[in-house]
Design goal:
By secondary structure, this protein is of the alpha+beta class. Helices cover 29% and strands 22% of the residues.
Length: 292
């Protein structure tokens, strides 16, 4: 014969709850289930949301209990690129899960933010103060001279089909001309190249169309270039006549060059700070002769 046993909460090792005690709030509560058969008793305890979470904690099944969330951030910095001053910075963040039982877990980091921060170009060093003998170049903002292939307009002046050897020939004539010997300014460079090409074209026109006048079968541009030397003497005479009208070959050319150099010195060192003159036969160079 089976006898029914009397079971109480203490059999399970749990404190018995009186009616009054069960109704009192508890810092941690749970649902307690009790089931009994004639010979077996089972008890189950299950926490449910919001269940027994303390203030500031919420139940999250993914983290197996009550957690409190906060965030933390990380940052890193880098110097601005070469030639600039300043520092750039970027940040990222992640969620921190603090469990009610005291353990801590971290969520994944977010993607880095874009770099922020102002980079400022390093200003160029101030030019050294002028002294007697300091040299400088006449800048294109004052007079756009063409002294060689590196100058703007060298290859585009006049007719673009003109070979560089003839461009250099004109520049060399200018730099040897008169007392000053300056490089040609853009206007004069273009004018005389165009005139030279025109004169050579007139000389070349007849032979180019005559039978047997072009034995190598050259195109018109290449053919005219072969006649540039034939027109050179005419060009130099025309340049000399033009220069005689404004005394470019003599002191007038030197005074004009000195004026350009003084403007260049005023631009670089300040008005009235220096006296500068042109270096004869230099093309476009100046020298400080006094500091005020």
């Amino acid at each position: 014969m089976y006898h029914h046993a009397a079971f109480c909460c203490c059999v399970l090792g749990l404190p018995a709850l009186s009616g009054a005690a069960a109704s009192m709030p508890s810092p941690s509560s749970a649902d307690i289930g009790f089931a009994a058969t004639g010979v077996r008793a089972e008890a189950s305890i299950q926490q449910s949301s919001p269940g027994g979470c303390r203030s500031g904690f919420t139940f999250q099944a993914d983290w197996d209990g009550c957690v409190r969330t906060s965030s933390t951030s990380g940052s890193e910095s880098r110097a601005c690129p070469s030639g600039q001053t300043g520092t750039q910075r970027r940040t990222r963040s992640r969620t921190v899960y603090t469990h009610q039982n005291g353990s801590i877990a971290n969520g994944p980091w977010s993607a880095w933010s874009s770099w922020s921060g102002t980079c400022t170009a390093v200003p160029p060093p101030a030019p050294p103060p002028p002294t007697v003998g300091t040299e400088l170049t006449i800048p294109s903002s004052i007079s756009a001279m063409i002294c060689g292939p590196g100058d703007a307009g060298y290859g585009s002046g006049g007719n673009t089909l003109i070979e560089n050897s003839y461009r250099n020939q004109l520049i060399a004539y200018y730099r040897a001309f008169g007392l000053a010997g300056r490089c040609p300014e853009t206007s004069g460079y273009n004018w005389w190249l165009s005139d030279w090409w025109s004169r050579a074209s007139k000389i070349a026109n007849g032979p180019f169309h005559a039978p047997g006048g072009n034995p190598r079968g050259l195109g018109w541009g290449a053919y005219v270039n072969t006649f540039m030397p034939d027109a050179w003497e005419e060009i130099t005479r025309a340049i000399d006549v033009s220069a005689a009208g404004n005394d470019e070959a003599n002191q007038g050319g030197v005074l004009a060059a000195n004026g350009l150099c003084q403007r260049a010195a005023n631009l670089q060192f300040g008005s009235g700070k220096t006296t500068a003159i042109y270096i004869l036969k230099s093309g476009n160079r100046c020298r400080v002769t006094a500091v005020h």
